[in-house]
Structures are given as structure tokens and as C-alpha cells.
């Protein structure tokens, strides 16, 4: 049986949503034609009233019934109860959900029981796409162990703590192989597509008042224990991030070839940036404000664009680019000679 994968269908479109709003209001209190028209104008297009209202009143859509009123305009009430009723999923929606279940990261957001329920409900559904349909290049191989029992438990504790603003006691293995233990307030999770790792932006709290922003790699977290402490004040991670940004932004000249501008905007979407077009050319200047701690990662990202991106400054960043290109050239020559 061939399934219908049209992205646009009559199910749950504007007309559906407008009629649903009318029925929700008419279930609570009877409505006049004028009130129904106001609802249509609020949730739909102005011309929608020309089609929706007559179909509701003449019985083509037998969803309303007129109630007797001693005087004044006629009023209508809903024949059905539709408030807060869950909508059945379309096949396209179920197919998209089935595709998400094939993603190795989905187990981080759902427990085993939820996964089992979804897999059983969608066992007859064809996925909208398969992971094998996509080819990813220029990525690291040592992705985080998403299916690990410990990694999943850590992720879900962090996710719950972010929602509850709960402080966590965390033991962490630093890049220098030192074990750090302390109290952190989890604020934001970020996923790096290139390296396949999750990072946790958090605020470390010392002596109940000394605050410091840290970025932890989830794969290096050794142990997490929940505390009974809830953050009493709103601590904005963005204010800490602003203070950590380099004063001298990375300035790139982007030649809009091979869709370079759009790719760059997507690639550098997690950075604060400004962009301007150079007059009478197909080139753009992009200023990227970044945390110095992620300079190496940003450098690798810039190199991946090849000749369509040119580094204008700062001088220190440009020097690192030159050094890396020279080292890569030496490695290529050595590889070439060894093959001969």
C-alpha cells in the first residue's frame, strides 16, 4: 500500500484550527454569529469567514446547534465536546516519529518504558528517512557513548535539573586528567555536530556566593548526585558567556560561492556574530565573537570551508591558520613519499 507523504494536507490546517476554536468557545458558552466571525478573524484569514460560518450554520458541518433565545441575535452551542482532546497523528507525523526512534540520541530524552511504548505503537509505520540516507563528512569518530547506561542516567539527571533549577554535585575528569568535584547549577546543554558530543554550560557555586561559569563535556562526567538545593535567584548563563567572549572578534571574508554564505550561517549559528555585505560584490564580512576556550574548535571549522572563506583577523588567529596549513602540507608530503 502506497502511503501519502504530502507535506501539506487538509488535516489540521487553518480551517481545522479555526473550527476547533469556535467549538471550544461554543462548548463553554453559546456564541452569536458576530462572535464566531471574530474568532475566525483572530485565528484564520478574514476571507475564511465566508466559507466557515455558512457551513457551520446550514448544517453542512453539523457541529453546532441553535439555542432558543427570547430576544436578541441567534446563539449557537457545540454539539460535541472537543476541549483538550488529543489529536490523532497523521501518517506523516508517525513516520517522522519513527525516523527519530532510529536516531542513537533519542534514548537520552526518553526512558526505556517510553521507548518501548513508541516502538510498539509505530511498529507498522515506515520511517520517513533512515540514518543511512545521510552521509556526514569532516566529523570526529569518538562520539559520546549515547547508549551507555551511565551516560543516559547522567544526561537525564542534568535535563531534569535544568528544568527544576536544581544544583548537582558532580565529579568530573578534566582535560588534564584531574578529578574535579563541586556543586554546579546546570543551565544549558549544547550538542556539537562535528565532534558528536554534548556539552553542559553550568555555573559553579563556591562558598554559597562565589560564581564561575564552566563548560563540562558530558562524556567526562564520572558521577552525579542530586542535591536538595534549588537556585533561589535567576542566574543567566548568557551574562557569563558575554563576559567570556574575546574582545577581538574573528573576521571572515565569505565569497558566496557553492552556497558558502548559507552554510557558514548554519555552521556558526551557535556563535554571536555580525555580517555585512561588501558593496558591489558577492562577498560578505562576518565578525564572530567567541569564547577563547573554543578557539581551536572554531579554527578547525573555518579551515573546513576551504577557499570560499578568508581570515581577515585577528593576527593571532591568522597565524594559527597558517601554522596548521603548513603542518598539514608537511604531513601530506611525508605521506606521499612513504607511499612511493
Account of the 3D structure:
The protein starts with 13 loop residues before the first helix and ends with a helix. The chain is 36% helix and 25% strand. It is extended. With 340 residues, it is an alpha+beta fold. It has 10 helices and 12 strands.
The rough form would be described as extended
Percent helix, as a range, is: 25-40%
The CA-CA distance between the termini, in Å, is: 57 Å
Largest sheet: 5 strands, antiparallel
Low confidence ranges = none
* Backbone structural class: alpha+beta
Count every helix, treating DSSP H or I runs of 4 or more residues as helices.
10
Q: What's the pLDDT, averaged over the residues?
A: 86
Tally of extended strands? 12
Q: Strand arrangement, largest sheet?
A: 7-6-5-4-8
**SSE run:** HEHHEEHHHEEEEEHEHEEHEH
Q: For this entry, what is the oligomeric state of its chains?
A: single chain
Radius of gyration: 28 Å
**Beta-strand content:** 15-25%
Question: Could you provide a short overview of the structure?
Answer:
This protein has 340 residues and is α+β, with helices and mostly antiparallel strands. Helix content is 36%, strand content 25%.
List the topology elements.
Blueprint: H1 14-28, E1 31-32, H2 33-43, H3 49-57, E2 64-67, E3 75-78, H4 91-101, H5 112-121, H6 149-164, E4 166-173, E5 179-192, E6 197-206, E7 210-217, E8 221-230, H7 237-244, E9 250-255, H8 260-267, E10 272-277, E11 283-289, H9 295-303, E12 309-313, H10 315-339
Helix pairs in contact: 1-2
Amino acid at each position: 500500500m502506497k502511503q501519502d507523504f504530502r507535506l501539506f494536507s487538509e488535516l489540521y490546517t487553518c480551517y481545522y484550527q479555526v473550527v476547533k476554536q469556535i467549538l471550544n468557545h461554543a462548548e463553554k458558552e453559546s456564541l452569536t454569529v458576530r462572535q464566531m466571525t471574530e474568532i475566525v478573524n483572530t485565528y484564520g484569514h478574514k476571507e475564511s469567514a465566508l466559507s466557515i460560518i455558512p457551513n457551520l450554520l446550514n448544517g453542512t458541518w453539523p457541529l453546532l446547534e441553535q439555542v432558543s433565545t427570547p430576544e436578541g441575535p441567534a446563539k449557537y452551542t457545540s454539539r460535541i465536546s472537543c476541549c483538550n482532546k488529543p489529536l490523532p497523528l497523521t501518517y506523516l507525523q508517525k513516520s517522522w516519529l519513527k525516523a527519530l526512534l532510529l536516531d542513537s540520541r533519542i534514548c537520552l530524552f526518553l526512558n526505556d518504558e517510553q521507548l518501548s511504548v513508541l516502538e510498539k505503537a509505530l511498529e507498522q509505520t515506515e520511517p520517513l528517512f533512515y540514518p543511512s540516507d545521510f552521509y556526514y563528512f569532516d566529523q570526529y569518530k569518538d562520539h559520546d557513548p549515547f547508549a551507555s547506561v551511565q551516560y543516559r542516567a547522567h544526561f537525564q539527571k542534568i535535563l531534569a535539573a535544568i528544568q527544576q533549577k536544581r544544583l548537582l554535585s558532580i565529579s568530573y575528569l578534566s582535560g588534564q586528567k584531574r578529578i574535579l568535584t563541586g556543586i554546579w547549577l546546570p543551565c544549558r546543554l549544547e550538542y556539537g555536530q562535528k565532534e558528536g558530543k554534548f556539552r553542559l554550560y553550568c555555573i559553579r557555586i563556591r562558598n554559597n556566593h562565589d560564581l564561575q561559569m564552566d563548560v563540562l563535556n558530558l562524556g567526562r562526567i564520572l558521577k552525579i548526585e542530586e542535591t536538595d538545593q534549588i537556585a533561589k535567584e535567576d542566574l543567566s548563563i548568557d551574562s557569563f558567556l558575554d563576559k567570556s567572549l574575546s574582545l577581538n572578534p574573528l573576521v571572515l571574508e565569505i565569497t558566496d560561492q557553492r552556497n558558502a554564505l548559507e552554510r557558514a550561517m548554519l555552521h556558526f549559528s551557535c556563535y554571536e556574530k555580525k555580517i555585512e555585505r561588501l558593496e558591489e560584490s558577492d562577498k560578505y564580512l562576518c565578525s564572530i565573537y567567541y569564547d577563547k576556550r573554543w578557539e581551536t574548535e572554531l579554527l578547525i571549522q573555518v579551515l573546513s570551508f576551504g577557499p570560499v572563506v578568508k581570515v581577515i583577523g585577528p593576527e593571532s588567529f591568522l597565524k594559527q591558520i597558517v601554522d596548521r596549513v603548513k603542518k598539514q602540507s608537511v604531513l601530506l608530503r611525508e605521506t606521499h613519499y612513504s607511499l612511493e
